[in-house]
Amino acid sequence: MGDRETSNHSDMTDFILVGFRVSPELHILLFLLFLLVYAMILLGNLGMMAIIMTDPRLNTPMYFFLGNLSFIDLFYSSVIAPKAMSNFWTESKSISFAGCVAQLFLFALFIVAEGFLLAAMAYDRFIAICNPLLYSVHMSTRLCTQLVAGSYFCGCISSVLQTSMTFTLSFCASRAIDHFYCDTRPVQRLSCNNLFVHKIVSFSLSSIIILPTVIVIIVSYMYIVSTVLKIRSVEGRKKAFSTCSSHLGVVSVLYGAVFFMYLTPDRFPELSKLASLCFSLVTPMLNPLIYSLRNKDVRDALSKLLEKKKFIL
């Protein structure tokens, strides 16, 4: 009886992504909404990378990190959006076993890498404001490269562990993943195994990833606020805070959505989907807007690039 009701992961050929539980009439509207958001993600993040690479004035550690942030946002949203949009037009909504593994692996890699990269950006702002005279010494090209490489490495290690833990489980007869992409929690719900140990390991792994990055960000900004408040001129304080406001906005949106998703009980999957939608698509769309609207250097570089294009045309 048990053999008929369960199947080992090696026998599973595909899964079904349930997606959003809405009436079929809304699928076209959701498709258009996803398409608009994804188009803005492509335009915003590719544009940000192009500006940073072409303008010599942006050849600084801050914009080196920002360029990598745009790269990460572009790729992890691309892991999810195309498949989610195609499922609005198909009846089966299936994703192959290999495709599900790849989607979970790549998304976990890039989302964890982004968390560590945001911590590196907070450290960069701490050095820039609290030790400006030693900024060029502390934030050397070598250190910046190591911080970015370390972010990707931590993302890769975390992704390997999460993916291997998830897909070594035995799955029940149901193949329906109650989500719009392959994520750890929805996939694990299909398992027939006792998930107590897996949940403990997943929680420990999440703590190891999230706590250090959050601590670095909080401590960095405690020192930044303390230093800025000692600046006597209002204009000086305003200028110092303006260099951090964009980063704080990005951190708030990303971590707020992540915490909301993982603190949402399993009995409310639709709330979890909304939170996932926020940090998988909305955050990558907002990040370039936040940095371009709040950053004078980026606005000036964009104006210069547009004027050059206009002159060529």
TrEMBL record:
Q: Which residues form the signal peptide?
A: none
Task: Write down the PROSITE patterns for this protein, in alphabetical order.
Answer: G_PROTEIN_RECEP_F1_1, G_PROTEIN_RECEP_F1_2
Q: Which domain of life is it from?
A: Eukaryota
GO terms (molecular function) for this protein are:
G protein-coupled receptor activity; odorant binding; olfactory receptor activity
Subcellular locations according to the entry? Cell membrane
InterPro entries of this UniProt entry? Answer: GPCR_Rhodpsn, GPCR_Rhodpsn_7TM, Olfact_rcpt
Transmembrane spans: 28-51, 63-81, 101-123, 143-161, 200-224, 244-262, 274-293
Recorded hits in CDD domains, A to Z, give: 7tmA_OR9K2-like
This protein's major location comes to membrane
Q: Which GO terms describe its cellular component?
A: membrane; plasma membrane
Keywords from the UniProt entry: Cell membrane, G-protein coupled receptor, Membrane, Olfaction, Receptor, Sensory transduction, Transducer, Transmembrane, Transmembrane helix
What kind of membrane protein is this, topologically? Multi-pass membrane protein
The chain positions of domain G-protein coupled receptors family 1 profile read: 44-291
One Pfam family in the UniProt entry: 7tm_4
One GO term under biological process is: sensory perception of smell
Matching PANTHER family: OLFACTORY RECEPTOR (PTHR48018)
Family designation: Belongs to the G-protein coupled receptor 1 family.
Q: What is this protein called?
A: Olfactory receptor
Give the organism, scientific name.
Mus musculus
Q: Which gene encodes it?
A: Or9k2b
